[in-house]
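job 3f2a | input accepted
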Amino acid sequence: TSMVLYICALTGVRLVGPEGVLWGDKPVPEGVDKAFPDIYGAVFNLFKVMNGDMAPMEDLYTKVPVSKLALGIFVVITNWAIFSIMTA
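job 3f2a | predicted structure (88 res):
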């Protein structure tokens, strides 16, 4: 689970972080950089999302609606992994 968190955090920072590929030369929309500020902040925010607290990502999925799909897939995968470990 920690590896999935790290990989998703790294991907998020590289795509939509403060210097993300998604923005190119355009300025980062206000509030979006709070979701993936750096690797450590992104891991912590994704851990909160994994536990059902979507507050860190609200600005992101209002500015980038397709991120709802990515976050939904992330929640399903991480919760599935945790539940399978707990029941094993």
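job 3f2a | The two ends are 15 Å apart (CA to CA).
job 3f2a | closed
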